[in-house]
Structures are given as C-alpha cells and as structure tokens.
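The freezer alarm interrupted the setup, so I double-checked each line after restarting. Inputs confirmed:
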Amino acid sequence: MQEDAPRPWRDTGDLPDPPWRAERRPSSRVPLTRQAIVDAALRVMDSEGVDRLSMRRLGEELGVGAASIYWHVRNKDELLQLVFERIMEEAELPPPDPSRWQEQLGEFAGQMRAIFSRHRDAARISLGRAPTGPVIAVFTEWLFSLLRPAGIPDQVIAYLGDLIGLYVGAFAFEESLRAGSPGLQDPPPGEFLDMVKDYLRSLPEDRFPHTRQAADFLFAGGRDDRYAFGIDLMIRGLKTFADQPPR
Amino acid sequence: MQEDAPRPWRDTGDLPDPPWRAERRPSSRVPLTRQAIVDAALRVMDSEGVDRLSMRRLGEELGVGAASIYWHVRNKDELLQLVFERIMEEAELPPPDPSRWQEQLGEFAGQMRAIFSRHRDAARISLGRAPTGPVIAVFTEWLFSLLRPAGIPDQVIAYLGDLIGLYVGAFAFEESLRAGSPGLQDPPPGEFLDMVKDYLRSLPEDRFPHTRQAADFLFAGGRDDRYAFGIDLMIRGLKTFADQPPR
DNA sequence: CGTGTTGTCAAACACTGTTCGAGTTCTAGA
DNA sequence: TCTAGAACTCGAACAGTGTTTGACAACACG
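Predicted 3D structure, all chains:
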C-alpha cells in the first residue's frame, strides 16, 4: 500500500500506447480523430444499440461520409476493439486489500456487471476480445497484488483473469441477446417459461423423478442471483487454492 | 388405372424424359422437410463455417431457391435453434454414479467441449440459446441424479446447469471467433502474443511490479488447460457445498 | 512555385435476411 | 373424373451491410 501516491488505478493517461496500436498519424488537431470516432460510436451504441451502429450511421453522427472513417481506423472490428477498451476503462479499482480478497473480488465482479448494464450492448462486442492496451496492465496488476499475498498461485491468478472476463462477458452477452430481440419468441418470456415448466412436470415420473421435483428450482431466482452464484462458486474454488499448505 | 387397356400413344409415363427436357425437379432430390433442411444447414456449417451459411447457400445445397426455405422455417434464427438442438443430442451421458460425481462432471464437460470442437462453429450459435426440447429434460435429470446424492443442494444444482452451459458455450465461442477470422489481426497470433508480452514487460517497474513478473504465466498453457481450469474451479467450489454439514 | 502528405467522399461491389406475388404441383372431396 | 384449395416453389426486389477505389481538395514544406 503506497500512502502518498493518490494515483487512481484507472488512470492510464500517461502510459504510452503499445506500438501495434499507435495512431496512424499523430496530427495535432483535426475535426476527425480516433477519439472523436470512438466517442461517437459509443454514443450510437448506447442509444440505439449495436445493431444500428453501422459505418454509415456512424458517419452521419460525425457529419462525415462513411468512407472517411476508414482513414482513421483499419476496419469495423478495430473500431469495436477501441470502443471496448474505452468501456473497460470505466472500472474503478479500489486499492487492493489482500485481507479482504474475497469481498473485493466480488465487488470487482459487481462493478463489471454494472458497466455492462450501463452500456446496453457492450457485451455483444466483448466476447472474443481482451483488452490489449494499458487497461490489461492495470487489471492484471490489481488482480495479482490482491491475490498473490492471499497465497494463491501465480498460474491460478493468471487463468482466473481470463475466466472472470469470460464469465462476465458471456453472462452479459446472453442478457443483451434476450433483451435485444423482443417478440422473437412468440409467447412473452414469462409465459414461455411457464410452458417449459409445465412440460418438465408432465414428464413420465419413472424416468424423470428428479426433474419433476426440481422444476421450480430451475426457474427460481433472478438474473442477479444467478450471476452472483457463478462468482461465488469461483471464489469458493479459489479459497481451496489459498488454503493450500504453503508450497 | 386400367392395366389391360391398350396404352395410348401419348402415354409416355414410364419413359424417361430426354435430357433437354428433363424435369426441372429431378425425382432423385429429397423432398424438402425441416429434417432435410437442418441436415443441410449443419453440413454447410461444419464444412464452410457459419459465416458462409446464408439462406442462398443453403438453398443451393438443397437444390432449391432460398425463398423456399421460408415456407418450412420461420426465419434463420429458428433454423439455427433447430441446428443447435440437433447438435446437443450428440451428447452421450453415462449412467450417473454419485460416488464419482467429480470425475463424471469433468467427463461431461469434456464431452461438451468435444461436441463443440467437432462442429466448428456450433458455439457461435449456442450462446443465448438453451435446448427447449427433450434434451433439456435428459440433461437435467442426469445432473440431479448425479449431484443430489452427493449432498449438493437443489438450488445449487439448478444454477450449475445454467452455469456449465454458459461456460462451455462461451469458451468455445471465443475459440471459434479466433479461429474463424484468420488474418484478421495483421501479425500471426503467436507473434502478436509476443508483442503483448514484451509490452507488459516494458511497463514501469514501480507501478507494475507483479505484472512484469507474471507476464509468462498470463500466456502460459494451452486452450485445453484453460478450459480444464475453469471446470476444476467450479468442481472445487461445488465440493464446498457437498462437504456442508447435513443441515 | 511545385510536390507530397493528409484527409474526405460519392459511387460501386458483393454480400446479407426477408418479403411478395405469381406460378406450379399435389390432394381430398363431390 | 373433375375441380377447389392447400401445399409448395421461386425469381425479383428491398433495404440494408462492410469495404475498396479513385478522384479531389486542403495544407505543409523546400
């Protein structure tokens, strides 16, 4: 714990961009910059959804032709990567306190979830992506300084970072899929669930004794509970690593 | 039909048409059914990838116009749901043996992974989908009869089913994203990883002491190891539920 | 002044999922 | 056997998509 360094964890402003993502031309001031493009893209995505975020729509938002964007950005995928990293920067990591690693890990997961629900379709662009900019360095450092003193092996921490990202992203992805296509299933969601539940209860008792009884459990609990369960299960698993005899 | 009446000259029913006047629809073609459509879709998806599975391509595979498919299937999404359930049916569950629940759970996860790697892009259509047919009943029953005797609470089992599906799907999803877009990143994957690793090592030592040391761990291990880690972590977490005092 | 570099953009390309209306083939009933 | 309607097919069209190209303008520097 450094007491005199007030630098927040998320402040990455003075870190250099990695070489593979330097701006093609660091010109001084121009109306159209990567910064402005990413801003606009995020704006469109948050207000109209990622499905409506086309290069033409983005050009319109910027008062510019669609083709112009391609001078600043290699292709749409690179643009989405930039938007993704911008979003990840919103995470505010508290100073790591290893004695409270379980709570802090839970809070971190909660914060990730909050970010994804703040930006409606962020999850749709998150899967298969990992931050490659300064953000990944900050996250990694935070995770290691939280879990290493807790006695968790390095390799486990490393894998865990991936795993949490995957879980958080996938969970939010599913959510945004369901929300994003209203009226896709004919019956409204609740009614549909009831139909499935009835189906499960109507199964032959001799071959599906457990399922009939467990139908209620299957559909119990809200999204938040399910999310928390996944995180909790991971933390419980992690604890078994921490409790390991030293060495 | 009169069998003994002299056949009129114009009755050529049993003669084959000359090639220049062949029937537009050769009788050899299978009739268009949902079954056949799903088969063809899976065939195209496995051999050319889901990106190339367009309605036009599918029509071509079936020797049929794209529009015809819409008579049998509401839209592409419904078609993909059918393909997904077909794939899920490939899982073969061993008779549950609660005394070996940890191994069997691991084997189940392995089998899911095998299915997803057998069908290259299956994961791309799996997220946000759950089987709604008989498959879900079989899976549920298997899981409960495996874990209930092990002392794991019903609600935990119920959530776990979801969680495993999410994890397996998401993991395979990421994999197929990476494999599906070759040459999307300019440097080949390995080289790109090296660049990231170098970047992490070049960070200022005072602010990123752990990250610099842990760079190797971050990129160590293959996909299989990472997958197994996630499953292992879940099982470890589950065990803490099983070891719970009986009430 | 000329000569590049930086930046913009309309038009075009090759796609996509889906709809429509017209046309065909099949089938059951009178 | 004849016929009305259901079952089924399909070319053309629609409104989109990401991306490329080549022409054109603004600006910098020697």
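Quick read of the result. The first helix of chain A runs from residue 34 to 48.
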